[in-house]
Amino acid sequence: MIVELGVLAMLGAVCGLDVVSFPQAALSRPLIAATLAGALLGDATAGLVTGAVLELFASETLPFGASRYPEWGSSSVVAGGAAAVGAAAGTLPLALCVAVPIGLGLAAFGGWTMVKLREWNARLAAARLENLARGHARTVMGLQVAGATADMLRGGAIALVGATIALPLARWFAPQPEPWAAWVVPVLAGLGGAVAGGASWKMYHSTPRTQPWGAAGLAIGIALVVLLARR
Amino acid sequence: MTHAAQPSHPTPAADAQAFAPALPLATRLRMTIRLFAIQASWNYEVLMGSGIAFCVEPALRLLPGGVEGEAYRAALARQSQYFNAHPYLASIAVGALARAELEQQPPARIERFRTALCGPLGSVGDRLVWVGLLPTASWFALVLFGLGVGPLGCVVAFLLLYNVAHVTLRLWGLERGWRAGLAVAQSLAHPVLREGPTRLARLGTFLSGVAVPLVIARLVGDALVPSAIAVAVAAGGAGMLVLFHGRVEGWRIALVVAVGALAFLLVRHA
Prior knowledge:
The complex is a heterodimer. By secondary structure, chain A is mainly α. Chain A has 9 helices and no strands. In chain B, 71% of the residues lie in helices and 0% in strands. Chain B has 10 helices and no strands. Chain B is mainly α. Chain B has helices spanning 12-18, 25-35, 49-60, 70-79, 90-102, 107-146, 151-180, 191-220, 224-243, 250-269. Chains A and B meet through helix 2, helix 3, helix 5, helix 6 and helix 7 of A and helix 3, helix 4, helix 6, helix 7 and helix 8 of B.
């Protein structure tokens, strides 16, 4: 358990840092962060499934500069890890029942911590405006290093605290006999599909002539589902 | 054979590019690496200001007098002021500002230029990357997931697709900015920046249409009743979100539903 927590905390730190500070290479997207966490805890597929569900929700939240948005990096690490240990102890649907709500909750909390970090960075910068106005190179470096270090610690702490709660909960809940288990995945998939569909409209409806492309894509998607089901 | 008419006088942009001085390789490398951390101290006071100074700083060392010189300190102070743009396209500003500082352009002109760059680099970058590239790469990876591709395939495809474009954009921006200097505004008319957002929006719409049914099908499987539940929730929910556009966020509703369901199930088993 301690090793698992350590691994998830380190991955959470990396993925939390990636969201804004360094290197913004999309390692923090749910599909990537949750899959990596699942792989590190022994079940990459459980991580991938969790990541796919969270990615549908994340499609609605775009990381525009000064706007407030959920932090999907460290939260998806916890969700992917919880799904992996839950699936190993019981069933994947019940593991998802723990992993997805905790992932969504931590994403909201992580977004709040990012705002607090930006406020802290602002206080740090405001206290050094005189040095910045004098062209003090060490002040510029110091602000960058302090901001990145604090962001990394923020991501690691969220992953550590989240995993401390989520892993035992997933291990305990996933093997329980649960008559509602069959409903979990359809409802999560439906909610994810709803959010992704709404997000697609929100993002693209103002661009001219996108509707035919969306309709064509939907038709091809449904046709592929039918074809794959017949195989 | 006919030839296109050549302008009798080169434009300021062509002039600037033709006479762009060489930037030492070590300086260019330092600036490139620092671009990836341009937002490390993003804050509500100067936004990306100190990040721009951090990225331009290796070039400023080449000013007369070096790091101890007055020119270096004055330039670093100018570059530490308020600035905001898209983080990837900020590389254009970094290149252009480094060139302007090394050419020792008048400070007032550099400051006006710096302020003028914020809006265009922010809006074009947001539409090209946050609404264009990122969702397109995400939908593409979800299509692969829906088609049954495994963890390694989905992760590698997503990261490759996204980061080839991401890194290229940063490198191109730095080079373009450096070569054009204060005449860099013309770079914003580049076809990728002008047409890219619209084309990526169409591709993204198409891929989202393909991805959503495939992902639902892979998650739920072939069983009729669960599939019907998932499709009904997805179609009804998406319709509601479109209807209430801008007034509700779907992921927040999903958070409330999912946490409520988890609490209900935990209480049953406690």
